[in-house]
Design goal:
four-stranded mixed sheet, single chain, seven-stranded mixed sheet, 11 strands, alpha/beta, globular, 239 residues, 8 helices, 28% strand
Length: 239
């Protein structure tokens, strides 16, 4: 029936097609959209994995992918070890911070869920091993293309600059981005967009927007990027 209706409507300059479902601006829906859009993802790189909760959320849509979870804070290691033991062929835990070089670094461990690299010792910092994404992915030998997720609190610049080979094999990225320069090297969100545009990625979604307590202004959001060659970018009208 649709075939005949379209044939009739095309003579009038119209077309019958299904209206896309409206979706909510959440992380779960965004990952689901990547899958439904046919973005190929064979491995997910979860940098700043904490206790693995984001990966578990992601697995609801990408159940067949391999997962590398990078986490530096020992407070999460028991949960990550348990997760890995349950799915040893799927989950690969890397108990290191991620930065621009391999070695040892300071890490702010004052909050289990918002820690980050630090350039100096302090009462709330600990010393942890640090690696680069390129180095670790080469060692684990996970199959691409990759979905790279960064929850790294203002150290995205150095992490991404040391991930050139990995970026070449990424099909999508999900990065927590900021409206304030929360560290000396932090990207503001439009700077992150420019940096990734220069490397062949464009934003396709924005989820989990957060406004700060201080003045209710924009604080952060998660930006979703895909390759600039994605066919959807060639369609420039709303409908």
């Amino acid at each position: 029936m649709r075939k005949y209706l379209n044939k009739f409507l095309k003579r009038k300059g119209y077309e019958l097609r299904k209206v896309p479902e409206t979706r909510s601006a959440t992380m779960e829906e965004s990952v689901k959209w990547l899958k439904n859009e046919g973005i190929e993802i064979n491995s997910v790189l979860d940098v700043g994995a904490s206790d693995g909760r984001w990966t578990k959320q992601c697995m609801a849509s990408l159940a067949n992918a391999q997962y590398a979870l990078f986490e530096a804070q020992p407070v999460h290691f028991d949960a990550l070890d348990s997760f890995e033991s349950e799915m040893p062929n799927t989950i690969h835990v890397v108990k290191k911070a991620v930065g621009s070089v391999e070695g040892v670094t300071f890490f702010d461990a004052s909050d289990p869920f918002s820690g980050g690299l630090s350039d100096k010792a302090g009462s709330s910092t600990i010393e942890v091993p640090v690696t680069t994404i390129d180095s670790e992915i080469n060692a684990i030998n996970l199959p691409g293309p990759y979905l790279l997720k960064l929850d790294t609190h203002g150290y995205e610049r150095s992490i991404l600059k040391a991930a050139t080979k990995t970026l070449d094999n990424c099909s999508a990225l999900i990065i927590e981005a900021y409206n304030h320069r929360i560290t000396k090297e932090a990207f503001l969100f439009w700077e992150l967009c420019q940096f990734l545009s220069d490397r062949g990625f464009m934003p396709v979604d924005l989820v989990d927007v957060l406004h700060r307590d201080y003045d209710n202004s924009l604080w952060q959001m998660d930006l979703v990027f895909v390759k600039s060659t994605w066919s959807g970018f060639s369609h420039v009208s709303y409908s």
